[in-house]
Design a protein that fits this description.
The chain is of the alpha/beta class and 494 residues long. The protein has a six-stranded mixed sheet, with helices on both faces. A six-stranded mixed sheet has the order 16-17-18-13-19-20, with helices on both faces. Strands 2-1-4-5 form a four-stranded antiparallel sheet, with helices on one face. A hairpin with a 3-residue loop joins β11 and β12. α5 runs parallel beside α6. The longest helix has 16 residues. The radius of gyration is 24 Å and the shape is globular. The chain starts with a strand and ends with a helix.
Amino acid sequence: MLNVRAVTKSFFGNQVLHGVDLEVREGEIHALIGENGAGKSTLVNIIAGIMRRDSGSMELKGEPVNFAHPLEAMRAGISMVHQELSLVPNLSVAENIFLRHESKTALGFNDWRSMRQTAAKIFERMGVDIDPAVLVGSLSVGMQQLVEVAKAISFDAKLLIMDEPTSSLSEKETAELFAVVRDLRAQGLSIVFISHKLSELFAISDRLTVLRDGHHIATNDIAQITADDVIRMMVGRHLGDLYPPKAAQMGGTVFECSGVSRFGYVRDLSFSVRRGEIVGFAGLVGSGRTEAMRAIIKADPRSSGSFKLEEKAVVWSDPGEAMDLGVVYVSEDRKGSGLFLDFNVGRNVAASTLKRYRNRFGLISRSALAEKARTYVDMMDIRPPNIDARAIELSGGNQQKVLLAKALDCRPKMLIVDEPTRGVDVGAKALIHARLRDLANSGVGVIIVSSEMPEVIGMSDRILVFRNGEIAAELDNRLGQVTQEMVMSYAAYK
């Protein structure tokens, strides 16, 4: 179906693809994996006509192709489902699917009846039940992802590229998406599937290609390799355990929260965190974990709640005041509310702490800011190691590292990290986990909110299971004896 040969690509003198090959067969699901910054997104953006290659060749069904823009690729049969949803919430499902390629009546008007009927046939082909007339904004994230797939194949796609399609989905929604993907493969569609979750790739893929530092490392049948093989090829070394050892010792209480409530989301939340401790918040999607954290720092309104920091009562009226006191929150939405995407790495790192970099004239010392930014670039292994690179130019994993560096520069006493490794490869996960444990070992209290059960269990000394806006259970995990089944039994019990 697709034959990519010796493709290269550079940005501002930095070569990100070094003669990469990729072969995708008809009717297969082909996984593409690599660390953040390995070149996956650049490669598929070239295939989909979003970027132009510098050199190399590409053939689609044996015919040479060189797309000038995405619409050319779509018309040739290549469609892409991006990691970030690109739907218009106040338009209907059918309007979203046929945006930019609407069916017309004989008089030149949009033929909405025809488009709704065609959309219904696409959903029938996918084996899902979605009303083409409903507003996209009324659908769950999982259903919206299926609309993205329908939108992609509405161009009569032969090759479908899916970039991290499950990063915001629950396990149930992921299972539903996988059923659709397998049905499409059975109908002869070729699919390139990008994910950082190895378990997903082994569950869904026929073959797997590994990229590392812009180089093609290997392509294998999925049945002939193991997860350890893939990790070793991705990072070029044995990674070891993804999760560092639990707390060696803990001190006194660093943070105490009492009676926090937010109408409709959180009820009478009370807990404490000790120095050096990592507390994990587990629970099903919609259980209220994120809403609780946002209410604590007052990013969202709360109806009640009191706090102690290092055994002293504290009060704040907004996240900035909480941050000044030492309670720092890292958002799960790094692009929407975490980073300034058009700012460079250095300006992002210091965005919350600019007053610290003033010189004696009251102006920002660029040299002091740059020196500190370089320290964090080295500490977090941000790639490329360039403090002048804009955040929007970085891969998702490196953006996450910048976001964490921004929080660390606030010198937190209590750090709340929401989904610390969403959309991050295994190598970057190991580094982020190690830095969080280092922070805890230095005496900082750490809260991790994560939808990934292995992460909550692997990182946490104590686990608070959230259900319906309340703590349903508290589990001591210092001996590492908590299981996923134990957590789920509390999270799902009604």
